[in-house]
């Protein structure tokens, strides 16, 4: 039961990253390309959170004898792939930011 609560907290944290609740202040409303990137990023974070939550639901269903093990394995694999993609994108964004910071003005 503690593992389930931990997983639910992790998925909630991933979904809260998109809104930056209590995080960085909003300077100005996003327009144009900024709004597109922001919505794309928020959508990607929501998909990662939903994939993880789906994996949990499938795992609980198979524990109750209501689902097939293949469905659980598929849901967990999708969740893992989504998280790996999110981490790869995060690493690229950080790398680009560091490169911009090293540029001479």
Order of helices and strands: HHH
Low-confidence stretches: 20-25
Any idea what the shape is? Answer: elongated
Structural class: mainly alpha
- In the residues, how many domains can be counted? 1
Query: Major β-sheet, in short?
Result: none
The portion of residues forming beta strands comes to under 5%
Q: What's the mean pLDDT score?
A: 78
Radius of gyration: 17 Å
Q: Which range best describes the helical content: under 10%, 10-25%, 25-40%, 40-55%, 55-70% or over 70%? A: over 70%
What's the tally of helices?
Answer: 3
Q: What's the total count of β strands?
A: 0
Q: For the terminal residues, how far apart are their CA atoms?
A: 54 Å
Which features characterize this protein?
105 residues; mainly alpha; elongated
């Amino acid at each position: 039961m503690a593992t389930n609560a931990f997983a639910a907290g992790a998925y909630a944290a991933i979904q809260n990253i998109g809104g930056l609740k209590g995080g960085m202040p909003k300077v100005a409303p996003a327009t144009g390309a900024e709004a597109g990137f922001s919505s794309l990023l928020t959508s990607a974070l929501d998909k990662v959170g939903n994939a993880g939550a789906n994996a949990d639901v499938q795992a609980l269903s198979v524990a109750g004898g209501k689902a097939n093990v293949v469905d659980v394995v598929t849901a967990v694999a999708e969740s893992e792939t989504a998280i790996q993609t999110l981490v790869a994108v995060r690493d690229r964004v950080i790398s680009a930011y560091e490169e911009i910071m090293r540029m001479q003005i």
